[in-house]
Design a protein that fits this description.
By secondary structure, the chain is α/β, with parallel strands linked by helices. It has 14 helices and 13 strands. α2 runs parallel beside α3 and α11 packs across α13. The longest helix is centred in the last third of the chain and has 21 residues.
Length: 376
């Protein structure tokens, strides 16, 4: 539900920076290069291929301010068969990008345009108003960032002094809708959560980048308790992996850390324990939760009659009774490091896959019934 395709070359580069410094040091210089279509094709081809290899059937992509390369990203998604939402990160030429995508996929069966104000500090009031109006006029989904970093929140307060909160900034420009996906949401207050719930907007939980950039731990349980839909995002390159499975794993880990911090801050043991997300909950956020945030809950995200066949075939290694590795070599290692010993229940196998699995376990990936990746 949240990925920056243009940032793939910077994956793993954080330095000692936090969000705003990281953007200036790494992100904005890289994104300035996307006026070159050859550079864009090189990166976007690998970004779409990599996410498919990791089992991502649907991806919400941020591109850059460059219309031609944004169009190219949409074209690559269509070529490779990935379901996608593709957004240009500014107002100028956004309508032209929308028209390009709709000319290639008129019904939005696979790829749809998405309104993408990067985040409030990068937009003028006029741009936010125009993007909100365009989303309403064209019935478009919206993606943006919210409350990722305390310095960012302070900057929003400074830039929009007449707004009561970060969420209120978006709401005042009609950018909080049932088709809005808000990434991060670490530092929301109670009033903001209530507003987001009333508007029906969703949250993309990005634990990998939240940890990598030291932004904080998102209190997912509290957000869910407010009745807000939550999905999971890899957020590369802020996140160090394009694997949604890794993001689900990290969601579990940070929720357990938060539980520990809550208990240390004087909360009851029962209340603190509730902060933990189970394996089933993390996988729900990575599948049906994300589909709901993107308005696709009736089409994908579950195996139900009438839904489209977006799925991956997962294979786990069974360790042979005689021990060792098949054929005396490393063939067995090609199936990853999820070792099954014949004693695990189905629930335990799924848990092992979430905590230890990687792209080697993803043998086939289907989108809308089409085989889009097969591991040889």
């Amino acid at each position: 539900t949240h990925t920056h395709a243009s940032q793939l070359p910077n994956t793993g580069l954080f330095g000692a920076t936090t969000l705003l410094d990281w953007l200036k040091t790494y992100t904005f210089p890289l994104e300035s290069r996307y006026s070159s279509l050859s550079h864009a094709r090189r990166v976007y081809d690998r970004a779409v291929t990599s996410t498919l290899y990791h089992g991502t059937t649907t991806c919400a992509y941020y591109a850059t301010i460059h219309p031609e390369s944004t169009n190219l990203l949409a074209d690559i998604c269509l070529e490779k068969g990935q379901r996608a939402f593709v957004g240009k990160a500014s107002l100028e030429d956004t309508k032209a990008v929308m028209q390009h995508i709709r000319s290639k996929d008129p019904q939005g069966e696979l790829v749809q345009p998405i309104i993408t104000p990067r985040f409030a500090p990068s937009c003028t009031k006029e741009a936010l108003a125009a993007l909100g109006q365009l989303a309403e006029d064209e019935s478009l989904p919206i993606q943006t960032h919210i409350s990722e970093n305390k310095g960012e929140v302070a900057l929003v307060e400074q830039m929009f002094p007449n707004s009561t909160s970060y969420a209120n900034v978006y709401d005042s420009f009609h950018l909080l809708t049932p088709r809005t996906v808000l990434a991060h949401a670490i530092h929301l207050d109670q009033t903001e959560m209530e507003l987001i719930k009333r508007r029906g907007s969703g949250i993309s939980h990005c634990p990998l980048s939240n940890t990598s950039l030291g932004s904080g731990i998102c209190p997912v349980r509290r957000i869910l308790d407010h009745g807000i839909n939550v999905g999971v995002g890899t957020d590369f390159s802020g996140g160090g992996s394009c694997s949604i499975l890794t993001a689900a794993r990290e969601a579990s880990g940070v929720s357990r850390l938060l539980s520990n911090f809550e208990q240390g801050s004087g909360k009851s043991e029962e209340e603190s324990e509730r902060m933990k997300l189970s394996v089933a909950e993390c996988l729900f956020l990575a599948t049906r939760g994300g589909a709901t945030c993107l308005g696709l809950e009736k089409r994908v995200g579950a195996f139900e009659v009438g839904m489209e066949w977006d799925a991956q075939l997962v294979r786990l290694e069974s360790v042979p009774e005689e021990g060792g590795v098949d054929d005396g070599g490393d063939k067995g290692m090609d199936e990853g490091i999820v070792y099954c010993w014949g004693t695990e229940s189905w629930e335990e196998k799924v848990a092992k896959w979430m905590y230890c699995g990687d792209d080697r376990n993803t043998r086939k990936v289907y989108v809308k019934g089409r085989l889009v990746h097969e591991r040889s």
